[in-house]
Amino acid sequence: MSSTTVTTVFAVEGMSCGHCERTVSAGLAALPGVTDVLADARAGRVTITGAADENEVRAAVDRAGFTFAGRI
Length: 72
Hints:
Blueprint: E1 7-13, H1 18-29, E2 34-40, E3 45-50, H2 54-63, E4 67-71
Antiparallel strand pairs: 1-3, 1-4, 2-3
């Protein structure tokens, strides 16, 4: 049986530094099904590997204090 890795990119507004990236990444990494997170403050996006529910991603970004701006 083969498995497929899903990677999804979301826009996140308000990140400006490495601390912001780590804060968002930690919240998203705790979500069920997420296997990897890469936050990029300069690009204003996060790349999530794994099965991530978009509503859960939105809630985690909001809890971290940033603005979820949708799927890219």
